[in-house]
Records
---
Amino acid sequence: MHRMLPALFFLGLMTAVPLSAQAKLNLFACEPEWAALARELGGDDVEIFTATTPRQDPHHVRAKPSLIAAMRRADLVICTGASLEVGWLPILLQKAGNANTQPGGAGLLLAAELVPLLEKPVRLDRAEGDIHPEGNPHVHLNPHNIALIAQALTDRLKTVDAANANAYQARFDVFSQKWCDATQRWEQEAAGLKGAAIVVHHKAFSYLLAWLGIQEAGVLEPKPGIPPSASHLEALLQKLTLSPARLIVRTPYDPADASQWLSQKTGAPAIVLPFTVGGDAAGGDLFALFERSIALLKGDGRD
Amino acid sequence: MAVISAEMAVIVGPAFAAGLMIAVTHAPLGIVVLRRGIIFIDLAIAQIAGLGAVAAGLFWGEPPWWVVQGTALSCAVIAALFFHLVERFSPDRQEAIIGCSFVVAASLAILLLTGQPHGDEAMEQLLSGQLLFVTWPQIALHAPVYLVILALWFLRPQNRQGVWFYLLFSAAITSSVQLTGVFVVFASLIAPALGATRFAGTRRELATAYGIALIALLSGFSVAIQSDLPLGPVLVCSFMLSALLIGAWPSMRASRLE
């Protein structure tokens, strides 16, 4: 039997080679939320690279060798679009020179092109701050958007990796049922939040607020992407003394100083919402992201 | 040196070419800068060229590359001519004035970028650059600049002083700062010259400086690839280490022999 071992080993190798030769689909996700969605739909059939971390502003990345290497390898790229990654994605696509993932092709999926966008600017001017001509790009915090994007991502996965089309469809069927149920549950749980007034640091939560019927009582940034100024905060404080806000929320990568200042002045708690998958210590998946966000907004599990 | 995969070679190829081009041009310039004791002139001119590029971006919105290039170069040349005048009329205050110009240019850039979306990131980019994102067309655009500078420098030694020095210097810095950012520009100018000071005035000075730059580039690129780190900051450190090792090694050996 022992003599047979090397032979068995080689046999194993021979059978293993076709398996590894039929490599997994390489998926490049610009943000953690799309990586999480790809994990739901792609399962073991995809190898996922995430370009930004949950606690990092996706407007900006630092060029590391692995970033370019991952883009060169990618069979499918999923990003937010709507100019969110305008500072780095076009140059990265160009630098990587990957024919699979050029704009307009099947290998590049931009989530913001698949859903109705909020806050489309009437006037385009850099003086208005970092506004995106297409509208607000932070689309993932509305579960109905996730459902639409999941459908489109499944279609792309099936196109790019036709051999595994059935597996992608099966995972999508399971996911979309679970997601639909969860969305209804969340809408019930968050019913009490309807009409609540909340201050945000950056317009990063517009889709979450619109979905739950929460009012945006103010924005700490005077214009998108521009740090809060003293006069703007003063004006916001005046407004909030007349009609108080329930909460002040920010993403893990927004600086804390402005929301803490306003929290001290108004007594409204300043909290960090995870914003994306892995944005707080609890981590988890897309389901956990929404569960945790709603719990934090309702005041559960907060000190 | 670690083995680098063919894929990585393709990825870092343009960045390495840019690094070589910059190092070859900067080493002789750095030697003169160090000899004259105007160390901070490169920081100042790099920062002023960067300020020009930032200002062009703000006033034109999305300017074509030649507008950015032209504004940056004009700012750098004006600053260089100003420093040249200071050298002629008030040489003992030159270094202080250069230092002041640097902090003023840096602060002006911060002021210009205040109220600009993601201004902090633009500021960081100006300082530490995104060398890995350099592409071959960009190399092709800047290579003639370096070739002309090197030709004027080596073919006509008179160009190494006076107003010519300042003009060549500002042209080199303007190109370099856009490829690599202010920090790598400073490191690649000063470190090789600093490591070669014991051969000052001899033919070995430039050869040693080139040796230091080559070791710095090779080790910096391998560390950045192996550890997957941003290239600019790694290169600054590798330039300094390489200068330290090559510069201090013979003196250590000499002191042991005594």
---
Amino acid sequence: MSLKPKTKALTMLLGAGCLFLLAFFLLPLLFVLYESFLGTDGNLTVSRYLAVLQDNQFQNVYLRTLKMAVIVTVIAVFTAYPTAYLMMKIKSSHKAILMSLVILPLMTSPVARTYAWIVILGRYGIVNQTLSLFGLTREPVRMLYTEGAIVVGLLQLFLPIMVLNLVSALENVPSEVEEAALSLGSSKIGTFFRVIVPLSFDGLIMGVTLVFTGCITAYVTPAILGGAKVLTLATLMRQQALVLMNWEAATVIAVVMILTTLILHTVLKRFRPRNQT
Amino acid sequence: MKNSKLLILITAMVFIFLIGPFIMIFLTSFSSDAIMRFPPKGFTMSWYAKALNIQMFRTTFWVSLQTGLLATATAMLLGVPVAYANIRFNYRGKGTLELLFSSPAIVPGMVIGFALLRFFVYVSNIPIVIGLYLGHTAILFPYTVRVVSASLRNFEGDIEQAAISLGSTPLHAFFAVVLPNIRSGLVAAFILAFITSFNNVPVSLFLTGPGVATLPIQMLSYMEYYYDPTISALSSIIIVLTVIVVQSAEKLLGISKYV
Amino acid sequence: MAFIELKDIDAGYEKGKPILKNFHLSVEQGELVSLLGPSGCGKTTTLRTIAGFIMAEKGSVTIGGKDYTNVPPNKRNIGLVFQNYALFPHLSVFDNVAYGLRRRKVSKPEIAKRVADVLHLVSLKGFEDRLPAQLSGGQRQRVALARSIVIEPELLLLDEPLSNLDAKLRDEMRAELSRLQHQLGITMIYVTHDQIEAMSLSSRIIVMNEGLIEQSGPPEDIYEYPATPFVARFVGFDNRIDGTLTRLESKSVHVDVQGVEFISTRPSPNLSKQDEGKSVSLYFRPDDTQIGVEPGKNAFEVTIDFSNYQGNTTQYAMHLGSHALRAVVPGKPIADGTDRTVFSIPPDKVIAEKGVR
């Protein structure tokens, strides 16, 4: 009796959103999942998976994608932590400026941001010109279309996300805690690792999750900076579907991509502390 | 003291790394060189003229604008009630539904676009533009839910109950008392969602084709064939527009707390 | 039938986990009743059940003879004042106050008149165009009051309305509320955890604990004759000694505590002749005790655990067997070198109530 108006209200509020996601999000995904198990004869089979997973190129690309994601995430953690920490220490007006400098890249087109690296790393870009100016190289070094270029591009793309997550985590660490640790004889670095890091661990894990999964599924950066020479999971999927018209393989890669992200989300969630005061 | 010097050094490098590329884009966009060379030589505005005169960029800009506005509006219409329900009500299965509502943010955008293409365009022959609109709406949905939830969380439920005790129906109270007080959150959600849609590549990737493309997709395909500062000029325009929108939104609404 | 009747109510925020169980409450027209108790005692739940924001799982709500059990809150015509005022931040003082009248389709000139009258009543004339953010805490509370009385509600519910104000303002607003109640004769139910507030305002206090009514009565009764150990502790009878009721007379109660006779000249209305020979508890306030007197009636030797000098008084922590006792006595700590002392309570300062369980 008393629940009826509430049920009615909830149906009105949630109904449209649920229907939309079921019809235009979940259903298509389930269809792709189903299709990935569909054999040429119409029966369910794992043959598509075997074909893709046993393929040497796929294995290389998958491992390379993971490797680059690890490298980017590690560099992001080690540079974003000091940055976020310093941003907490400075005057709030300065912090606001730095915050907008972090948010701005996040809001601008990834195509434009990645394109900038073509200018920087190109044959006549600033890096090559500087190297030759100091006589360090005779020929321009080929930096575009390498794994290194993709790593740099991804790092520029995802570093702001890591910084933002760490800043909001550190905002929740009361400064008295740090002072208390110092007064108890802990060194500055000891305090950082024993007090600050554990207290901001939740934000760290959030940042790592977003950056890592972002790297694995990123398309624009490897497309521009890796091209067809250095493929990643995302560019391989597009190549299989739109260039080679191998939809069977693309479907399997799509499922692999979802699974990888979901596994990462689940595994990393376990590291998140439950009760923090 | 040594610690903080190292800290400042790392932070400075991080910001040079984040902002430097933008400066490079600006510099090369005025270069009179047809190949991208550093330091840039000469000064010309011709790349801007060229970028603005390429018909494909103009067409796709409108596609991006329309897709962005429509998808954002739809996502807001779906997301505001969901955010409201999740803040005000406790119900069975809330955790599961919240997972459903946030899942478009977890599933890779490429896969969302790919699935829509396979399911709708190939199976039921729906025009590809509809798929593009649906895919963008799906990824913006969790975004609007999150931002609107954040501003609803700061709005006390008591105020709404006061309106109801004075004779408002719950629906009237929502429009008369709740919405006017979360206006800045709504505008912030709209701006953030629109920018997300406008910049998006992964979802659009499979939902564009000959005849229908968004601006970022068009820029990508242009870059495959041409290697001149046109893209620098176009990027500069987009960046400046984004900066203007984001900075004024920050001044007026404090948008950064919702990012 | 009373003006407000709650009967057999089961109500709470989660289905199957009622905070109020089999709850009964009746309030007469024109009464100002306080619901007093610690947080979580069910007082706010009671208020919200009357207001209609919590629909009872079981039982009935009747107001003025009409069954309100299933009437939604927006159709109840009950004024509600919140702890945090809950003013509409985007509306001016005038529009805040006019809100309920507009919902009731009152004509424009009538609204203008009634808003002006009520703003005059709460001394806020001239503030019509201000936004809530431009008002002080006390002014906001006046607007909240005006907003809820302008609709001429059948009854006014107040949920800790003064707890966000500082002490001086609280006194002022309390006087103001009293004045309004007398002037308008409106029935009020007032929720608070502050006993002084409840004492000074209400014609009747209902002390609640864990979803049940512990005691209901005029402020003097609650303060002087707490009926249960919970109420006793709540109104400051911090000390308790258990004994046996030996004799109950019209003007005195005699209790045996470990061989010492205690007399109370304030027999509780809760005791009867049948209780003689049964266990009772003696309650008294720390500041009614005396220390360092001759042994005799109403006195016995206790051990001092520590004393704490507080300027014009000294606080003692003592124990008698397993009972911890507290005394607040004028003057400096007694310094006779021992930790034993004699402790006594004047007969008119101690009450005896039925023993626990």
